[in-house]
Amino acid sequence: MTGLEGPARRRIRVIRGGPVLVEGPVEVVHDGEVIVCDRFQVALCQCGRSKILPFCDTSHRRSRRRN
Ligand code: FES
């Protein structure tokens, strides 16, 4: 051991067409506000359609157009 280890690594999963899943607990900074999340996993919106930004509310599942 070197004694120089950094903080534990967190896993972040990027879901194509969906959110970014971040292992918690985390602090999310959004529009200058710090939001403390104690959940084991946090879903961050990538599509911009969520009504609870910066978090995903599954709005990405709705298609934009129906054929
Ligand atoms: S990624 Fe899920 S609502 Fe935007």
UniProtKB/TrEMBL annotation:
* SMART domains given in the database record: ZnF_CDGSH
Which keywords does this Swiss-Prot/TrEMBL entry list? 2Fe-2S, Iron, Iron-sulfur, Metal-binding
Report the residue ranges that make up the Iron-binding zinc finger CDGSH type domain in this protein. Answer: 23-66
Return the protein name: Iron-binding zinc finger CDGSH type domain-containing protein
Could you tell me which InterPro entries the record lists for this protein?
Answer: FeS-contain_CDGSH-typ (IPR018967), MitoNEET_CISD (IPR042216)
Species of the source: Gordonia caeni
